[in-house]
Amino acid sequence: MFRFDSLFDLMDAFPDEQSCVDHLRSIRWRDGEFCPHCNGGRIYHFSDRKTFKCSDCRKRFSIKVGTIFEDTKLPLRKWFMAIWLITNHPKGIASTTLAKDLKVTQKTAWFVLHRLRHAARTQSFNAPLKGTVETDETFVGGKEKNKHAKDRKGGTQGGKGKEIVLGMLECEGELRAGVVSDLRVHTVQGEIRENVAKGTTIMTDEHPSYKGLSGDYFHHSVNHSAGEYVRHYIIHTNGIESVWALLKRQINGIHHWVSPKHLNRYVNEMTWHFNRRDLETTERMNDLFSCVEGRLRYKELIA
């Protein structure tokens, strides 16, 4: 079992392209070999150790087909470096920085990072959150006074001109967060009911979107507008608010600006990091390798 606690260890563990191919194959086919085209058949191995053939569909393929690495012109060693960097920097890495580190163009580095965020997306939830769950919303976007006059929405009440991110954090457990279209009752409570088990204790602020949860949940709230942040030492939203602080540091400190179109990808990246905060370096990197299925084309990304 390889261990790579530093970038130096990573390069020592994977000195050439074939070692990277072998590692990717061992993780992708850990439950058995399959064809990425027809998902069946017996797999024939060629002597070059890089290509394979399916006995059913008769198609020849590499281990990268059907993954985020498909049709990449970059060597896997550079991809492995990018994966190590994005999985071991809690606030992520800027495409300009990655471009210098990998000696590629900024456009290539940007596409590499988005393909890795595509792999890190939450594809399906296992079980609903339960126990005690903190729920809160935050607004992402520049200040109205700093925008061009034609782009200003007017006013700041309710986060006008900003994108809305809703999050739910289980005490000592999992985080779920994503961009929502608005803060209407049916939108917010629809997300909560989809992700949180009935009978759970939910702690929120005083936003009116949370009113009406008491029928299915033990709902408690704190009144931030009145200066109340903790009630009875246990009712608060401090945990989820610390998550928002992490997201803002990621956006403002690392990327400086994120377009509304791609904001959810950055939220997913932050969520992925947060939910794997207790994993060691090697485990976290291999966890990303285990979810590289699914190709992302550049045209789809910028469409």
UniProtKB/TrEMBL annotation:
<dbReference type="Pfam" id="PF12760">
    <property type="entry name" value="Zn_ribbon_IS1595"/>
</dbReference>
<dbReference type="InterPro" id="IPR053164">
    <property type="entry name" value="IS1016-like_transposase"/>
</dbReference>
<feature type="domain" description="ISXO2-like transposase">
    <location>
        <begin position="128"/>
        <end position="275"/>
    </location>
</feature>
<dbReference type="InterPro" id="IPR024445">
    <property type="entry name" value="Tnp_ISXO2-like"/>
</dbReference>
<dbReference type="Pfam" id="PF12762">
    <property type="entry name" value="DDE_Tnp_IS1595"/>
</dbReference>
<protein>
    <submittedName>
        <fullName>Transposase</fullName>
    </submittedName>
</protein>
<dbReference type="InterPro" id="IPR024442">
    <property type="entry name" value="Transposase_Zn_ribbon"/>
</dbReference>
<feature type="region of interest" description="Disordered">
    <location>
        <begin position="139"/>
        <end position="159"/>
    </location>
</feature>
